[in-house]
Specification:
four-stranded antiparallel beta sheet, 3 helices, mainly beta, globular, five-stranded antiparallel beta sheet, 6% helix, 390 residues
Length: 390
């Protein structure tokens, strides 16, 4: 089923949606995203504050880390963690038009070819457990090719669908399964459930293009107005093949569904420039909450980058120093770790930039930056640049 949404509403939701992934989606240079986000200078050096953090201890586990490359190779981006010690990245060699996916073991410093695609790819996403990897590419004829790999880089399933843009989220309850929405040139969209093990992609009649898995057969979503941008929306839960949906709470600006917990962000009633991050258990009973300053754009809220370690009940995010309009905010952010079970909160690093974050499965290291070009040792708080754009 194709559903129409307004361009403005879609642009805003796409921007927010990309904050939801465990590893951020590296979106192709589609006109839509170019219009929604300013370009970033990925070649700039680590700033002075980050240098101070990185130089605090010279002999640490990350001080000498650097992606091994030959002179004929150019690293394009890092995509995330295959496991707690192995990083997936892409490299392009001189004379080649197609990048290659590589695996780098930080412990042994060994690299290996993970996957050699036949065509140039646009996006790479690793499932939360590291068991499956999605590689997609777009054609000039308005189609997207999607390939799902296993944890060793072997293709499991490939499918092509009409699409100018994709949005997808991994099922944490069933490895490899995806909820996927494809957007067309006229802003209509279709939704699917993709299962690489069964070699199937089922069309799904779903009320919103962005959703997260609430169980093996249920999805949670914010029921945004399809025609006009809004600052809040009700959080709802719907079984894949049921007509109705259950309303969970009102006036939510953002949420993240983990396997055994739920995190929501709502604007505080008394202080409209502050937000409450609240954590709930599997029965949607409140566990813990904390208040933070909010940054707002004209049409939406700016949600700082975050990641979590569900095994340790830890949530890691950037918190702004004050509430302000995002385009006027010139301050920095504090990298903060919260344990939602114990209710403890720890400031890890101050004067940081709000950039994408992806932490290893054991939580000891976090990739950091718009191409994950830096790495943070979460024990020593040291930052090391892994590669530099040329």
């Amino acid at each position: 089923m194709e559903i129409k949404v307004s361009k403005a509403a879609l642009c805003m939701r796409l921007s927010i949606c990309k904050m939801l992934c465990f590893v951020p989606l590296f979106i192709s240079t589609i006109l839509l995203i170019s219009a929604c986000e300013p370009s970033k200078d990925l070649s700039k050096p680590v700033n002075d504050t980050e240098k101070e953090h990185s130089q605090s201890t010279l002999e640490t586990s990350v001080s000498k880390l650097k992606v091994p490359t030959a002179e004929t190779e150019k690293i394009e981006a890092i995509y995330g963690w295959l496991d707690s010690k192995t990083i997936l990245y892409s490299v392009k060699r001189d004379g080649s038009e197609i990048s290659q996916l590589m695996a780098w073991n930080l412990e042994t410093n060994e690299t290996s070819i993970f996957y050699q695609p036949a065509f140039a790819f646009s996006e790479v996403s690793i499932s939360p457990s590291g068991t499956h990897i999605l590689v997609s590419s777009f054609t000039s004829s308005g189609k997207a090719s999607i390939t799902i790999l296993d944890h060793t880089g072997n293709p499991l399933y490939t499918v092509a669908i009409p699409a100018y843009e994709l949005s997808y989220v991994w099922n944490t309850y069933q490895d490899g399964v995806l909820f996927l929405s494809s957007f067309y040139e006229d802003w209509t969209y279709s939704s699917y459930v993709l299962n690489p093990d069964d070699q199937t992609m089922e069309t799904l009649d779903f009320p919103q293009p962005f959703a997260q898995w609430a169980s093996e057969k249920e999805l949670m979503f914010l029921d945004w107005d399809r025609e006009e941008p809004a600052l809040t929306a009700p959080l709802e839960r719907k079984a894949l093949n049921d007509d109705g949906a259950d309303s969970l709470m009102l006036d939510v600006i953002h949420f993240k569904k983990m396997k055994q917990a739920l995190m929501t962000i709502q604007v505080e009633t008394e202080k409209q420039d502050r937000g409450t991050y609240a954590f709930y258990d599997q029965a949607n009973q409140p566990i813990h909450s904390f208040s933070v300053p909010l940054l707002k754009n004209f049409t939406d809220w700016v949600i700082p980058s975050y990641d979590f370690n569900e095994k340790n009940k830890e949530f890691i995010t950037f918190i702004p120093n004050e509430s302000k309009d995002a385009d006027q905010y010139e301050g920095r952010f504090t990298l903060t770790k919260l344990n939602w079970e114990k209710g403890t909160q720890e400031e890890l690093m101050k004067d940081m930039e709000n950039e994408p974050l992806s932490c290893s499965l054991d939580g000891n290291l976090c990739l950091y930056g718009y191409q994950f070009e830096k790495i943070i040792d979460m024990k020593t708080h040291q930052i090391q640049r892994l590669f530099k754009q040329t």
